[in-house]
């Protein structure tokens, strides 16, 4: 605007203090007086347009940066996704304001959880039995954790391994480690850097070890203590060589040029030409507390599972009234479980919940096992993971109360504080932090949308 003002004043000396505007200077000096006015008007129009474009980009930088997965466009969830985004654009600004800890019993409870994450028990108490003893139908531990939590996490990171074999469960490469006291852990190796973006469909790629660890902490924050304890663990190649069973050794070799130990294991997707190898003689991964057999884990097909075939749609993808069918086949509590899980999966970006697992021993209460297909792409939000929520338009009151408590950045602030205790911040990159907050807002918008369109209360 200052330049325009100077031109009006014919004060070219001052205008041309911008030495690099040579072209502009030549044009202006060669223009006749009446052309100058056209030029000035055009310049003003141009500046106003630039300012408008800047305003649009500035105000839409958060929400419109959401990329909806292309598959959504061809199915019944397309309309729902559009409505959710519409609801997001007019979401009450109150959802951006954090709540003070002193004003919320949920935040105070999370503070107790945080303190329980720290090391507390140093005596010779059997931490693994203590971890098992707190399991009941409300989950794998109380919402505030257990006083043994921090010490158990520490033990899982440091216990001496006496046996390493491959696990035949599931379809991806996994190791089963046994500690001296016979406690077992599942080990999912690190295939990708934390910063790697997984492209393709929502279930593309291999398991993300960091996704398993982050899912454990996020489940605690969201009030679903249903993920077995997961820690980052580093195995060294000597340890691997010394503890490997004969069976595992048959699928292991040392790369003659790099001297790194490579393992290809035995599983549906395991291939000799696609092994996992140590890096600088270390193998990083997620160590998952193996649940005792007495809980009687049972697997069922998830009703909102995908077809896993490019051109084949499942019923929930094409039928807007799919929830009516669900309501006749599942009781309300189970439907509310599916909705809790959908929100959890949407937040972590897991679109691969093809099975759900329950503890038969504890009233068939649901667990959140296998969260490895999460944290793949922080730039894409797969709104169709939320289908159970927006197709049924129901949510547990206590889940909604907790989600609202985590607004205004509290969610990722708590996550960061939790990771600081036993893990490093390097487990999660900044774009993923932004994705977590953005997806939380999409959930608020979905619930608000449901509230507006339902005649009865959606809170159960
Ligand atoms: N912590 C655990 N405690 C007990 N059993 C477990 C645990 N984690 C996994 N399992 C069992 O192992 C099975 C396979 O684990 P997981 O689903 O993580 O592997 P996966 O290779 O990703 O399988 P899929 O190909 O089905 O996705 C589970 O379905 C469950 O029955
Ligand atoms: Mn899996």
Automatic annotation (TrEMBL):
Membrane-traversing stretches: 35-59
UniProt subcellular location: Golgi apparatus
Record's keyword annotation contains Cytoplasm: no
Entries under Pfam families matching the protein: Fam20C
Keyword annotations from UniProtKB, A to Z: ATP-binding, Disulfide bond, Glycoprotein, Golgi apparatus, Manganese, Membrane, Metal-binding, Nucleotide-binding, Transmembrane, Transmembrane helix
InterPro entries according to UniProt: FAM20, FAM20_C
Gene Ontology CC, one term: Golgi apparatus
Binding site for ATP: 172, 188, 288-291, 357, 370
UniProt binding sites for Mn(2+): 207, 370
Ranges for domain FAM20 C-terminal: 254-456
Superkingdom of source: Eukaryota
Catalytic residues in the record: 352
Keyword Transmembrane helix: yes
Cofactor annotation: Mn(2+)
GO molecular function: ATP binding; metal ion binding; phosphotransferase activity, alcohol group as acceptor
Sequence similarity: Belongs to the FAM20 family.
PANTHER family xref list: DENTIN MATRIX PROTEIN 4 PROTEIN FAM20, GLYCOSAMINOGLYCAN XYLOSYLKINASE
Protein name per its UniProtKB record: FAM20, C-terminal
Species this chain originates from: Cinara cedri
Record lineage: Eukaryota, Metazoa, Ecdysozoa, Arthropoda, Hexapoda
């Amino acid at each position: 605007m200052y330049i325009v003002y100077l031109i009006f004043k014919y004060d070219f000396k001052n205008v041309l203090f911008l030495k690099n505007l040579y072209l502009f200077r030549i044009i202006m000096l060669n223009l006749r007086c009446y052309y100058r006015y056209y030029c000035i008007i055009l310049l003003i129009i141009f500046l106003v347009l630039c300012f408008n474009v800047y305003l649009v980009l500035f105000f839409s930088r958060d929400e419109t940066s959401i990329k909806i997965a292309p598959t959504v466009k061809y199915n019944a969830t397309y309309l729902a996704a559009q409505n959710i985004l519409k609801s997001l654009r007019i979401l009450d600004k109150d959802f951006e304001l954090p709540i003070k800890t002193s004003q919320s019993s949920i935040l105070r409870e999370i503070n107790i959880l945080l303190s329980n994450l720290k090391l507390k028990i140093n005596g010779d108490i059997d931490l693994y039995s203590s971890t098992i003893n707190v399991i009941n139908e409300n989950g794998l531990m109380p919402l505030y954790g257990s006083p043994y939590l921090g010490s158990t996490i520490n033990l899982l990171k440091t216990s001496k391994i006496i046996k390493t074999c491959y696990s035949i469960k599931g379809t991806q490469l996994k190791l089963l480690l046994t500690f001296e006291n016979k406690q077992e852990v599942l080990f999912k190796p690190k295939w990708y850097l934390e910063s790697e973006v997984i492209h393709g469909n929502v279930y593309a790629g291999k398991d993300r070890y960091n996704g398993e660890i982050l899912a454990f902490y996020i489940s605690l924050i969201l009030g679903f203590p249903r993920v077995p304890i997961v820690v980052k663990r580093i195995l060294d190649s000597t340890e691997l060589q010394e503890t490997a069973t004969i069976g595992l050794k048959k699928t292991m070799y040392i790369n003659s040029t790099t001297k790194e130990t490579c393992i290809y294991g035995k599983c549906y997707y395991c291939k000799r030409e696609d092994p996992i190898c140590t890096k600088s003689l270390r193998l990083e991964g997620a160590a998952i507390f193996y649940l005792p057999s007495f809980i009687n884990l049972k697997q069922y097909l998830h009703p909102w599972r995908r077809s896993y075939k490019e051109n084949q749609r499942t019923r929930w993808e094409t039928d807007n009234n799919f929830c009516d069918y669900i309501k006749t086949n599942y009781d309300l509590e189970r439907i509310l479980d599916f909705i809790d899980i959908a929100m959890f999966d949407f937040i972590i970006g897991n679109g691969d919940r093809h099975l759900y697992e329950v503890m038969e021993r504890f009233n068939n209460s649901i667990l959140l096992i296998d969260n490895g297909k999460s944290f793949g792409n922080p730039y894409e939000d797969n709104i169709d993971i939320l289908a159970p929520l927006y197709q049924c338009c129901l949510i547990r009151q206590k889940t909604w109360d907790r989600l609202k408590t985590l607004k205004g950045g509290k969610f990722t602030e708590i996550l960061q504080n939790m990771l600081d205790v036993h893990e490093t911040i390097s487990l999660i990159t900044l774009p993923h932090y932004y994705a977590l907050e953005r997806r939380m807002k999409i959930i608020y918008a979905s619930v608000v949308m449901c509230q507006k369109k339902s005649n009865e209360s959606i809170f159960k």
